[in-house]
């Protein structure tokens, strides 16, 4: 492989990485638990952007802090899974259908 082809491939890889970083920052996913008592929103980097706890969740938990913690955890985890699904769909399109997971082992 000649150097110009290698440089071209490296440039394309850099461009794809920049696109991916932008996509991670702008992708958001939201999920609820407890029938909407707790709602979490995360970005593509799985950073928690917003956590909303319905005031009735406090009454529903009746002082059961563990139940409220479980609802929060469930909402955040589900939002993270949704963000992963969105990112996988986005990267699949960018990579022309190649499975990045298989490439990375």
What does this structure look like?
The protein contains 4 helices and 3 strands. The mean pLDDT is 84. It is 63% helix and 17% strand. The longest helix has 30 residues. By secondary structure, it is α+β, with helices and mostly antiparallel strands. The protein starts with a helix and ends with a helix. It is found in: Cytoplasm, Nucleoid.
Shape: rod-shaped
CATH topology value of the domain at 26-95: Ybab, Chain: A
Helical content band: 55-70%
The chain-level structural class is alpha+beta
Average pLDDT taken over every residue: 84
Gyration radius from CA atoms, angstroms: 19 Å
By CATH, the superfamily of the domain at 26-95 comes out as: Nucleoid-associated protein YbaB-like domain
SSE order = HEEEHHH
Per DSSP E runs of 2 or more residues, the count of β-strands stands at: 3
Euclidean distance between termini CA atoms: 24 Å
Unreliable stretches, pLDDT < 50, 5 or more residues? none
H/I helix tally: 4
Largest sheet: 3 strands, antiparallel
CATH class of the domain at 26-95: Alpha Beta
CATH architecture type of the domain at 26-95: 2-Layer Sandwich
Strand order of the largest sheet: 1-2-3
Range of strand content: 15-25%
Q: Gist?
A:
The chain is an alpha+beta fold and 105 residues long. The protein is built from four helices and three strands. Strands 1-2-3 form a three-stranded antiparallel sheet.
């Amino acid at each position: 492989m000649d150097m110009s082809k290698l440089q071209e491939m490296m440039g394309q890889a850099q461009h794809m990485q920049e696109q991916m970083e932008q996509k991670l920052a702008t992708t958001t996913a939201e999920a609820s638990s407890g029938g909407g008592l707790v709602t979490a929103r995360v970005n593509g980097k799985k950073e928690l952007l917003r956590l909303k706890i319905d005031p009735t969740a406090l009454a529903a938990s009746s002082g059961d802090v563990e139940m409220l913690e479980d609802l929060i955890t469930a909402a955040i985890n589900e939002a993270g899974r949704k963000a992963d699904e969105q990112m996988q769909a986005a990267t699949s399109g960018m990579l022309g259908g190649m499975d990045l997971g298989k490439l990375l082992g």
